[in-house]
Write a structure and sequence with these properties.
four-stranded antiparallel β-sheet; 11 strands; 51% helix; rod-shaped
């Protein structure tokens, strides 16, 4: 059932309006036709009642020997009258709503001081030409038996106009015009109500990948303006919070440079050569960590513009750089071109960190990229020992290193994976890790259709 429902709020709201208004219109028309049919039946019944009352008075006032001729002359093909000893409608027959309405209309035209017996039976619908068939029924036939005091019964077959069918051309045209007007005006109104929600969704996606995106316009209904104002305030607060934290990290990293330099100078005066070498190595590691931290903070604060690039060419350039650095890298040819919106320098840095890690610690990196419905998927496979599953998330933490030598030549500073995931997520994507059955690790990078 859910598959049959439209997916968007606009379509669902419009569908509910159409169904509700169409049903209410259909019910209103049905009630109108029913009331109109009852009114026409009552009016036609009163007309026939008046005619039957006149015939009754003529027959009763005529000499007995002339009554049969009078009755015969009054009858025609549809309105038939007969004078019989018994009534054609028995007292045990059950009368319906229409029959009771005709009987009530007939009683109004008879003398109220006479004790008359009147029986009415609904004989159903019949065409005006006497042939019954679909689309030809336009008459309701009623059999009326009315007693004449001490003189027998007058039996009538009375034709009345049948109620008009609900499904007429006029009704269909009325429904079509009503639905057309509803679709037009409802679409305009629903669009005006749901468009701000679409703007909210787009703004939320932009906020997730671009902290410096523009505020959404504060326009529309009062509730929409209030929600937009609250969203913009939240956006500005988050942006200020991130900027303050990033600037603080950059300032701390910058200020650490001076004491590290002083400690390096003092280490030169240590007489023990082995201790001096160890101190200088530790200072080199600290300096590298500070430098990487400053670089990370600087990249976060820089506002590199988003541009459209050929992602395949960008990936080829990254693989060439890693190969030139002495690592074994293979790029599997894929679809070309692969247009993609991103911050090129940041994306090259993220891919370079990931591919270099795979080639350095997994002996060889094999890179593949493919298109899918909602963006790009980049797979980086290596031939190393893999990573235990419980550490798949931990390696993205700042300064965490699987390599335990603590040497910056062999283990780095532990910021490469952190920086890479930060950049990928800033483009709306993510990174997942999986140990391959044939050995090695697979890093899968998913990127949405647009990086903004």
């Amino acid at each position: 059932m859910k598959r049959l429902l439209p997916d968007t709020l606009f379509a669902r709201t419009l569908l509910v309006l159409l169904i509700g208004l169409a049903l209410s219109h259909a019910i209103s028309i049905a009630l109108y036709v029913s009331d109109r049919s009852s009114t026409l039946l009552l009016m036609d019944g009163r007309h026939m009642g008046d005619r039957i009352a006149i015939i009754d008075r003529i027959v009763r006032s005529a000499p007995p020997e002339e009554r049969a001729a009078i009755v015969e002359n009054i009858s025609d093909d549809m309105f038939r009258v007969s004078l019989d000893a018994q009534g054609n409608v028995s007292a045990s027959e059950e009368t319906g709503r229409k029959a009771r309405e005709v009987e009530a209309a007939l009683v109004e035209h008879l003398d109220r001081d006479e004790n008359r017996i009147i029986r009415v039976r609904d004989m159903g619908e019949q065409a005006a030409d006497g042939k019954s068939g679909p689309g030809e029924r336009d008459l309701d036939l009623f059999m009326v038996s009315m007693s004449i005091p001490d003189q027998g019964w007058l039996n009538f077959i009375v034709p009345l106009k049948a109620p008009q069918s609900l499904w007429t051309l006029r009704y269909v045209l009325s429904m079509a015009v009503m639905l057309g007007a509803i679709v037009l005006f409802s679409a305009i109104v629903v669009h005006q109500l749901t468009d701000p929600l679409a703007r909210f969704a787009r703004a939320s996606r932009r906020l997730g990948v671009d902290m410096n995106s523009r505020d959404i316009p504060e326009e529309g209904a009062a509730e929409i303006r209030q929600a937009a104002r609250a969203f913009n305030q939240m956006h500005r607060r988050i942006r200020r919070f991130v900027e303050d934290r990033t600037q603080m990290i950059a300032a701390i990293s910058h200020d650490l440079g001076t004491p590290i330099s002083r400690m390096r100078l003092r280490a030169e005066f240590v007489d023990d050569e082995e201790q001096r070498t160890r101190m200088l190595r530790d200072l080199d590691d600290m300096e590298k960590m500070v430098s990487d931290t400053m670089s990370f903070a600087r990249d976060e604060t820089m506002r590199e513009p988003v541009s459209k690039v050929d992602f395949g060419a960008l990936l080829q350039r990254v693989c060439d750089d890693v190969h030139d650095a002495g690592h074994d890298v293979e790029l599997v040819p894929g679809e070309r071109p692969l247009p993609f919106d991103c911050r090129p320098a940041a994306m090259r840095r993220a891919l370079g960190n990931l591919i270099e890690n795979a080639a350095r610690y997994g002996r060889k990196a094999r890179v593949m990229v493919r298109n899918y419905n909602h963006g790009l998927v980049v797979c980086i496979d290596d031939e190393g020992p893999g990573i235990p599953s419980h550490l798949h998330e931990k390696i993205f933490e700042p300064f965490y290193r699987l390599e335990t030598s603590r040497s910056r030549q062999t283990g780095g500073t532990g910021l490469g994976m952190t920086v890479a995931r930060s950049i990928i997520r800033a483009h709306g994507g993510d990174i997942s890790l999986e140990n391959r059955k044939e050995g090695g690790l697979r890093m899968e990078i998913t990127l949405p259709a647009t990086g903004t």
